[in-house]
Amino acid sequence: MSLGRWLWVGLVLQIVGGSWAGTNAPLNTASSVSRQFTAYAPGPVLPVAFCGFAEHLKNEWLDRLAVPDHWHDPIVLVFRETLTSNTSARALRLQIVQIGPVRKYEISGWVPPAPEEAALAATIVEALCLEIANRSRLPGPGVWTSAQIPRWLIDGLAGVIQGDPDRLLTVAHRSATAARPPLVSAVLGMAELPADEVARELFLANAWLLTDSLLRLPNGGGKLYQFLTRLRTSEGAFAEVYQVDFADAVAMEKWWSLVLAHQATSVIPQDWTASATAAQLTALLRLPDGQAFNDLYRHSDQAGLRDVVGKRVAELEQLRSCAHPLYWSALAAYIEAGRWLVDDQLSRYRRAVARGDQLRRAARRQAEAISVTLDWAEQKYTTGSPSNVWTGYFQTIEQLENLKREHHDPISDYLDRFDK
Prior knowledge:
Layout: H1 3-17, E1 28-31, E2 37-41, H2 46-65, E3 75-81, E4 93-99, E5 102-111, H3 117-133, H4 151-162, H5 165-176, H6 184-188, H7 197-215, H8 220-230, H9 237-241, H10 249-265, H11 274-284, H12 305-320, H13 328-342, H14 346-381, H15 389-406, H16 410-419
Parallel strand pairs: 2-3, 3-5
Antiparallel strand pairs: 1-2, 4-5
């Protein structure tokens, strides 16, 4: 579940409860299921939402590393209320706090607005990795130095767990097909996120690709776990763990070049909007000579028609791979109709193409209804200036809950199809 959904649940309950802490009010607290996370935040429910998000992220993180949940040190999330609009003042901060033998990892931030999800996910992943890497500390007094989690691993694991794979895959594909794709040593050696937005996106995509590829190696999750446990005690932890897979730096660069080559030759599907899908489908339903696809039974004896239809069926199949879900059923019917025509089954072709026309009209009506509903909601619930976004968010949640109780709208009807 994303941070937005956890906050959605928390904020709805907070609205129903009718309480919101003032700036100087004491923070409320909650603990996660595993007890590793404790959250402090304004109001009675926001701490629960933060703990739920962190626990969900941790479970996914444990699955990737294939390790049991034997945590040692707690992780605390502290979010205080602020009215400042200074973005630098709202930046997330991770620090290690030690009081005697007790050590904890504290993530601090400010609300409103809610912290940016990707940044919070990466910070929680860093805290989880630090907790594992620092377990190997020696007992007793003395100078203690924390492990440093590599930037690529923080953002790579966060991307694998919480990222948008389609977007990351597209950026990684663009990076792989560039004139000079990055060396794996450059990705491994990046100390901090680039300030330039384009460079940052490329690094995040390559960090995700590198981490995902390492996880796909034999015992990939176990090896990343071993790497974390050796980070604090060995400067060559990566080479030690992956020496079986990469004999030296040259072998790893060769492996990375193969990973990039695979990305360069991959076809990245693009999700089309409903209007773009409809426009492309309309164009494909008319053959090059002007004949309509649903009227081809009249010209079934035309020479070369079946070859033309066969090619058009292939184009319809390609469109379906990236079409808007509203048009999937209609496209499937047209593809079936084209295949019946190629097989000279005219009666079956006519039934399939009629079904395709009906489904296409229904999809167009539903797309128009969804567009109207979204336009209405945008106009009704626009909150105005950015300073009122947080208050407007609360009001929108309450109004949408009332709307949901009153009737079904085209969007809910469309989404209900996927819940069945």
